[in-house]
Amino acid sequence: MTADLRRLGRRGSYRLGRLRAQGIADPGPPSPFRPSFTRPRHHGPTPAWLAAGLAGTLVIAAGAAAGLWFVPFIAGLVAGLANRIGGWRARIMILAVTIMAIAGWAIPLGWLALDGEPAGATARVIAALLGLPAFATTGVIVTFAVAVAQALAGLWLGRALTPFPDRG
Amino acid sequence: MLPERRRSRQVGRISQAVLALGVSAVLLVILGAGLGPVPALGRALDPGHGAWTSAAGGRLPASRTLRLPGLAHPVQVRFTAAGAASVSAATDSDLFLALGYVHARFRLAQLDLQRRLGEGRLAQLTGPSAVASDRFELQLGLLRTARQEWAGMPRSSPAARALTAYARGVNDYLATARASGQWPALFSLAGVYPADWTPVDSLVVQGDLDQQLSFTTVPLDYALLERSLGARRTMAWFPVTAPGAQSPYDPGPYRTLGTAPLPADPAAATAAVPAAAPGRGQAGGRGAASAGPARQAAVARAAAAILTQVSALPAGQVHAYPDSNAWAASGSRVAGSGAMLAGDPHVPQTLPSLWYQVALSAPGLSVSGVSVPGMPAVLIGHNADIAWSVTDTQSQSVLYYDEQTSPSRPGQYFWRGQWRRMQQVHYVIPVRGGPSRRLTVDLTVHGPVLTRAGQTVAADWTGALGSPDLAVLLRVGQARDFRQFRAALAGWRSPAENFVYADRHGNIGAISAGLFPQVRHGRPWLPMPGTGADDIAGVIPYAAVPHVYNPPGQVVVTANQRPVASSYPYYIGTSANDFDAGFRAATEYAYLRRHSSLRPASFAVLQGSLTDGLARQVVPRLLAALRHAPLTPLQDQARQVLAGWNYSMVTDSAGASIWWWFWSDYLSAVFGPWWKSAQVPVHLDRAGLAVGPGQASLNEVLAHWTRHDRHNPAFSPPGGPARDAAGAMRAAFAAAVAHLKASPGGAPDTWTWGKLHTRRLASLTKASALGYGPRPDGGDPWTPDAADGGLASSAGPSWRMIVHWTGSGAAAAEGIYPGGQSENPASPWYGNLIADWWAGRYLPMPPARLAPAGSRAQPGARGGPGGSGRDGGGTSRTAGTGGAGNSGPGGVSWELVP
Fold it and tell me: What per-residue string of b and e applies to B172-194 under the rule 16 or more CB within 10 Å gives b?
């Protein structure tokens, strides 16, 4: 099939990109050259790391139950130091410790609710007494924010104390 | 890698580590210790031990056995479905120990806030904003008084034993809270927790109540008014005895019995230490000896300074709003020929309420009613033989003295011919999130020095003398007839209260118990010279205080009106002391005298009455003034609405709105120009100095002029054209219509009161979301169901109670208050009574003695006054039994065991 130059620019006509001979495969754009000097990512099996995350969550929950409010920070710090071994990307670690902190403090809160205590109403009271918009969600969010802030600070410190380069 | 790049990378990494370390440290310190007003959020929001644990206090109690150290015998506590508690014990000590535990379980934050307020420790919990309040309270001296009372109280006395047992009960609960970490959220968020409770704390809470009911700054307002308006106008517009009908409950005849000695003030006795030999002629400096305009200016300056301090106090700490009611009827007025009593004390309405409903039962004591958390007693209620309620007498309880001082004699004052050394008391005020403050309080023989600005002014307050209120209330609770009731009240000192009484034998009565200070000369409504001649010379003897017993009309009403007629031979205060002008009392007397065979439902109708007694007197005059006046079409429509109005301040009444604005504008039209001309310093005390419906004196005087003195010169503004009452009313009516045209706007028949007027129950924590409302509501200061605080009311009926003694001697008792038994906003008992209160429903009061399991609360107790309703206007309250699930025993009980 040959191109009919007279149909160019008219409705239903050929596009310029199609003005090549049919049957020739498109090679696609060339891949850019990406030199890398980093180690291979995340050592060890992923399930083991997930188990560690779960353990961290339980430790945070147990710490909350024991009145050790700073455990999310310690968990974040440990996670940051452990990443020397794990080699996970920063964004993955941030996500992981955030989930760990929230879940760790959500467990005792969920326990309160399951035990029949008015957790939602209490969340609203906490928000109101803090001078925030008096919604239960506000109370829950500010609580989780405290845990997450600690965990992320710990993570940051742990990564900063890691003695060899770790780019992510 | 090049060495420079490597070094640069290392520097960057170290910097990042240092930064991360610093940020982490700062974050942990803030979360762990807080920063200034920012609470330690890490600790506070820890789900296991922080504010979240307050959720446990939000659960309703379950039946269980609790071990309380200190009990001698088991105690049973039962709760109705609505939360009212019944405590039954084998001994008084066990009873009050259990009451302390119950109060602490449901009102711990309130207990701690109240004692902190009185002891000047509020800033330790709430931060620097409370320093001014702490400073003032430590100056005033509730803590000093409480300590002296406790020190002088025989430990074997019933009151001391009750206080000791009560404190132990509170501490038993504190011990469980410490063990479990389950504190009210207020404490967890602040990171400040309550210390052990002591008997002194209970006496401080009693002092708080005393202050709220009797401490005023009226003499300071008088000083400022006299300085600006002049003495003649001040006393004409704020007279000692107002010209209108007062509806006294004790119309006389009266006896003059001289004065009884004033109880000694332990603080003053130690304060008056002679500092030098008699120093005649040595008083050269500022002081009472100087007279005339200079002294007036100095006193005014001192008054301004004190009023500025007082303005920092939490709402309600200075007495205001004279809107309580208590009445009783007997004989043919009551169905069954027994006696019936109604009481509804009006105070600032808060969540939690001032009141905690309880029935107490032990050998020799069996009472049901309302208690104040912190005090081991029922303040208003009934026992098996008598019922009582209270209203404030509004009498003058504070006298201010300007002390004579000299720059050459620092720390001294001149009294009774000698220079005396002021006693100094030093305090440290701890402040959360800030440095502690130091305070030195100077004491003279009169009381604490409140200011040295312009003049050294000391306050002589009857509340500072201490009052065996608890001992009296215990005896009242045990009284079986009027003789014992009256004998018990002989010891009551402060606050002066009208105690209204009804008993199972059909007798009724009332007594104004308390101290009524008398001076030999001088004008006690103004700050007086402190050199001794104008000191309190004594008090009205108990035999001569206002009282009645079985009055001929078979009705007694106290509604904060002046309890006696103008022929009463003793001084009890001026019209500016907020004696109610008698409008409510007149409405109540008229209703009760108009009816016979009254039932609890009839009393409930009167407690919920929204008929405005002032409007009833004034509106006909206004309509007469408007009859031939040129009116715009809008004004004429408004006039027609007013002409068809029945004086009821119900929410859907447009006439109520027109009346309110008219009266406000009428006051402004008449007095406003005088205030402006005289430059009255309204900003120093809006409640006491501003022209408005809150000024009882001006209301009373203007109502009287409108009816009987229509050409009073005050109607003509200074420098303006001559005017009479009708002219002022027409101007005020035009202004009122203009106000309402602007807001809410529309046609006059749509200007309903509910669009303008709301009521709100504020949270004690000051967190607005934890309050209730604002919600449209009826009433105003002159309706029996009163609403005070202007268009946004915050004070009113705090407890409504009706006790009907039937001829057989049995009692039907019911009551309700706006709020709930628990202070925990997450609890179903936080605001469960509000709906019933708002609808005018009542709940049976729990029995004083526990009924056998499965039986009802009390013989004759009823679910509510059938047929109760707000009168007039069509917004009738729903009648009948209390709201769903709110009446009857709830089946929950605690067994408290040693």
Answer: bbbebbeeeebbbbbbbbbbbeb
